[in-house]
Amino acid sequence: MIGGLMKTSSRFAIIAAAGILAGGLMTPAQAGGLGGDCCADLEERVAELEATTVRKGNRKVSVKIYGFVTRALLIWEDDNGAGNSRSDVYGVDIAMSGISRWGIKGGAKITPDISVGYRYEWGIGDTLIHQTTTGNLPGNGDDGVEAEGLVLRHSVLHLTSKQFGTVSWGHSHTASDGISQIDLSGTRFHARSNVNASIMGGSFVPRGLFNNLDGGGRGDRVRYDSPKIAGFVMSASWGESDYWDAALRYAGQFGDFKVAGGVAYIQTEDEQIFGGRDSGGCGNVSGGFSPFGQQCFMGSGGVLHKPTGFNFNVAAGQSDLQTGGGTNTDYQFYYLKAGVLKNWFGYGKTGAYAEYWHSELDPFGAANDSEGTMWGLGVVQNFDSAVFQMFIGYRHFEEDADGDATDDEYDATVIGGTIKF
Q: Most CB within 10 Å of its CB: which of 45, 81, 275, 346?
């Protein structure tokens, strides 16, 4: 019986081998009669996919594409105190969190301790209402300021040592950038101390009065960041236009409390920081004059109680700006926010908050003081499965300027969403 099985198996093997040999000897045309075109089609489709797929130039350097798309509806109204009011609804980018953007970053190891990396990032301009300096549109047109196209945000290389820190050079964040926006509320992406970036509208130009002095922004600079030591990181940068800054940041946890904060100092001596702006000053509070020097000190921080989600955040800063003619512009602000961050519905964390802002600006002397106040409320809902956020936020602004017979008020409600990738 076993011998019969062996004979039968041998016959099957011979038949299979003959089939393979015959297939190998077939011409392409003969193979086509047996369905060979399917393989040719498959190879063609693979070639098309390879031609349209982002690929790495080599196997040693990593490549990552990232970004987010954010859009909202703005319900806006202003009142200049003289019976003149305007209101409308607009489709906008979300000025509080920044325009939609995408970027490419990656790097490679040189040694076990040293690595090199890169980052390119572009903002995708649309209705950039918050970037105007002539009235914080809308109000001067239904579409606000149309700035369509790509806006370069980062073009930078960095060399990192785990032992000695990171040196980076190119167009990117200065050391102090973001120092006024350290926030543990979970709602920072949509509501933070940069209230000047909120969409307001109105006849008054509150660009100087609602400014959180948030560091030097992005510019062409050289920057150093120390390794983290006991939760602290020290940073310093130098940029074109005689600009330099230094910052100290901290992040840590004490029992159930998460804590983060930072402070920074900025010194600049070139009026081009508000013109060509190779590397930024700490906010244009010049009141329309051409500054030739500015010193700023600012900081922020937050505390989060992890079991309950209760959090409190604060930011403050001051600026001394020399505007020529023997006059200085003095400016100071503070910002407070309290809220709760909790996963109540199972989709992701919900952040609810209340916020308050106060600032004082003295551009020409005590006789011309101005004050700005803001209060706001909002809710942000995360959907973790889609890395998606829905939000609604309301802010009410008031400005009281000496020499202005009327006090201006602004109301802005923003409803929208953000998806990250």
A: 81
